[in-house]
Amino acid sequence: MKIMIWPDSIDKEYQVTVKKSRICQQSSTQLVHASMNIGAVHSEIEEIGWEHLVRLAEDLSFVTFRVVDKKERVHVLEISLNKSYPNSPPSVSADVPYIFNLEWSRNSRLKDAVNQFKQHLEKLQDFWSTMEEIDRSLFISDSSNLHRATSLRHINTGNDCSIILLIHANDPRSLPECRFMGPDEKVNMLRDKWWKNCKKWIKEKPFAENLSSLLELQLPGPPGVEKNDQQIECGICYSQFLPIDDELGVKSGGKTDFSCENTICNKAFHSVCLGDWLRSITTTRQSFDVLFGNCPYCSEPVAVKIGTRK
Fold it and tell me: Which stretch of 31-45, 60-74, 179-193, 254-268 has the lowest confidence by average pLDDT?
């Protein structure tokens, strides 16, 4: 019997061919899995409603939804999906004082995360109502930096003094924690009054009235602002001004420049933010440089002109 011995060159060529074949098989399997994953995520978004979608990452690493609470406040929930989703739970983040513990099982879907977020928002209604009451009735320093996640308020008490309050998110009508700022002599006087009167705090009373009683002061209200000079936050990004960014061109650092024409709604937006949001909605239509869609708050028709970014 003759034994044929392959030359080394043929053996190496065979090994390379086998290796390439395995790589192709792995790539094909990965593509199939990726296609299945995209379909699964799209199906879960369909259950929630595409009209609530704000953004979906191209690599499916995250998805954000718009959620409106019972007081018509708009919130954005971001759900981060890792590569093994749905076999492993996602993580969630939102502009809230504290995040909820997501309950997840092998049968859970994105709608379950959204529903749990809605339940969490219900628990925070009294907190946000209290914060809004404070903002309406007292002189808030650094008011341009306020957002829904913060529990702090820096209040001007007059006489070169101020007080920083920490409002308890789970019990916002209770006596807050405090820190006084100002000249030592005046701060010591305010601190003594606080400790002397702290038991007089009554949850049912208006917040400003409680604070005045404790400090034995007539606290100043919000500074007068002319309507034309009033700076309004965007209903999508919740900021008064866009970031300083070369990509935004002439819009960089700009204030809100678009308002819903529905007089009941009248929400203000940065046209850049509204344009980005409308692009994420499947029902939006475009004609030349104008996007036609619906207001995120009242669903009335809106038309926003989009500019060319750098």
Answer: 31-45
Residue 44 is part of which domain span? 22-97
Q: Any residues with CB less than 8 A from the CB of 99 and at least 6 apart, and which? A: 92, 93, 120
Q: Residue 100's closest CA among 122, 117, 112?
A: 117
SS3 category, 240: coil
> Could you give the 3-state DSSP secondary structure of residue 294?
strand
What does the pLDDT read at residue 4? 53
pLDDT at 2 over 70: no
Structural domain ending residue among the three candidates 59, 82, 97: 97
Residues 210 and 256 in one domain: no
Question: What is the identity of the amino acid at 31?
Answer: L
Span 146-168, average pLDDT: 91
Total count of domains within the chain: 3
Confidence band (pLDDT; 50, 70, 90) for 12? low
Structure tokens at 270: 């940065």
DSSP letters, 155-212, are: EEEETTEEEEEE--TTSTTSPPEEEEES-HHHHHHHHHHHHHHGGG--TTS-HHHHHH
Domain of 51, CATH number, reads 3.10.110.10
